[in-house]
Design a protein that fits this description.
Radius of gyration: 13 Å
Shape: globular
Number of strands: 0
Strand content: under 5%
Low-confidence stretches: none
């Protein structure tokens, strides 16, 4: 099993935050991670399939997996 990089951990931590205003998350993605929103969500989606991410943040990863599966089912 591999390890999560600092960026991987930062993506999970940012995703787990609560956001008060519209656009605050996207601004944080740009300013804190230096990523576009598209790249951020690509990385996040890939992280959801990694056992290391599940071990690091099980509640968040399981919640996001459920949301992803619900959206796939709705298509």
């Amino acid at each position: 099993m591999g390890e999560l990089s600092e960026r991987d951990v930062a993506v999970l931590e940012l995703e787990g935050r609560q956001w008060r205003t519209a656009g605050a998350k996207e601004r944080a993605v740009r300013e804190e991670l230096g990523l576009s929103s598209t790249r951020y969500y690509q990385l996040l989606n890939a992280l959801l399939d990694r056992p290391e991410a599940l071990a690091h943040a099980p509640v968040l990863v399981n919640q996001l997996r459920r949301v992803r599966e619900a959206r796939r089912g709705a298509r």
